[in-house]
Amino acid sequence: MSDIPSEFQRITEEHVDAILYGHLCKRSGLAIWLFSKAFRHGKLIEIKRCELHRTYDHRAASNDPLAFGENDIEIIATIQKSGSALSTVGLLIEDKVDARQAVNQGERYRARAAFGIRKGSWDDVKCLLVAPQKYLDSAYPDGDVGDSGWDKLISFEDIAACLKSYGAPTREVDTIVNATLLANSWNRPVPEAVQFWKDLKLFQRAFYPEVPIFASPQQGARVNVWPSFFENQLRNNRHDIQRRRIQLVHSGKRHVSLFVKNVAYRDFRPVALALIEPGMNIGAEGKTWQSIQIQVPEVNPLLSVQSQANRLDEVFKAARRLFDFFEANHVALLGVPQSK
After folding, report:
1. Strand 213-214 and strand 152-155: pairing?
2. Going edge to edge, which strands form the sheet with 152-155?
3. Cβ(14)–Cβ(7) under 8 Å?
């Protein structure tokens, strides 16, 4: 229905990338700490290059089928190990908030890193997986990365502690910490949207008691919700199982849709074309859900119900009309051959 304001959005890998990049593109406290973790007894001298989301395909050149993919953060730096000369090293970082690792992701990082040595990009290189501690514990319970391709596991919690110790902005520290929380699995509730759904139920009871609405925002920002109508008469009908294939929803920004489930578009379209009334149209082809729609004005859950009363009138009138349309034509609509 509407875009979620940034302050209520869940923290993603992109947010973490941006913070890490800001500190690792220079010889910062975090960069010094991270290189000391990756390269034992190594002292960071200079950051030569730092880039986000570098994609490579070295499969042909390396004769290694795993030498392709993306580095979330790629750093080339100069370090000095105890009692040795300066050397150029690479640090390849993959960060995860909660997404699963891709197939062979660590091994592909390792293959790209090895090819970098072959072609002279760096003398030595390390591949790091950076994620919340609970993510790392789940993926590698004993902390042993084995032959996964990763050289070291670094937790968000340790990064946040390091940033805090070096006086990084509180907002950045809090972002990294919040990315580790279970609550970050969802966008945070937007107060305006929470109030909108409460007020919408009052609006329905006062002005459209004959058009029952069901809106279950559940987890998240409470913004992108598709409220449904006549649930007990259609999808949740206990007495007519065929009607459970029908759902009436305010689907998206600008239309109310009557969905018929488990039918192919090629079978549904000719039946619907013969039935639809002026102001109705057939929705875009779906895989197994086909629809008849009525266009309505956009409704924004971040604005008040009162300020959108005229628009909501159109939504409820469209829902009533589509329900009556289904009642008048249910034999034909439910008679469309089921696709599965």
Report:
1. unpaired
2. 42-57, 68-81, 86-95, 124-131, 152-155
3. no
Write down the pLDDT at residue 219: 44
CB 92 within 8 A of CB 52: no
Side chain identity at residue 286, one-letter code:
G
Q: How far is residue 42's CA from residue 159's CA, in Å, rounded to a whole number?
A: 18
| Rg of the chain on CA atoms, in Å | 28
* DSSP H or E stretch at residue 153: strand 152-155
Q: Mean pLDDT, to the nearest integer, of 10-31?
A: 90
H-type helices in 25-152, by residue range? 29-38, 59-62, 105-118, 133-139
Query: Which tokens sit at 77?
Result: 């730096």
Query: pLDDT tens, 296-316?
Result: 998 888 889 999 999 999 999
Q: Give the pairing type, strands 86-95 and 124-131.
A: parallel
- Report the SS3 class of residue 150: coil
Of the candidates 333, 314, 312, 321, the residue with the CA atom closest to the CA atom of residue 246: 333
Burial classification of residue 140, based on how many CB atoms lie within 10 Å of its CB (0-12 exposed, 13-18 middle, 19 or more buried):
middle
For 285-315, b/e burial (b = at least 16 CB within 10 A) is: eeeebbbbbbebeebbbbeebeebeeebebb
Q: Is 4 helix (H, G, I), strand (E, B) or coil?
A: coil
* Residue 185 clears pLDDT 90, i.e. is over it: no
**What pLDDT does 340 receive?**
64
Model confidence, pTM: 0.57
Query: Per residue in 196-245, pLDDT tens?
Result: 888 888 999 999 999 999 876 554 445 556 788 999 999 888 888 888 89
Angle between helices 156-165 and 29-38 (to 10 degrees): 140
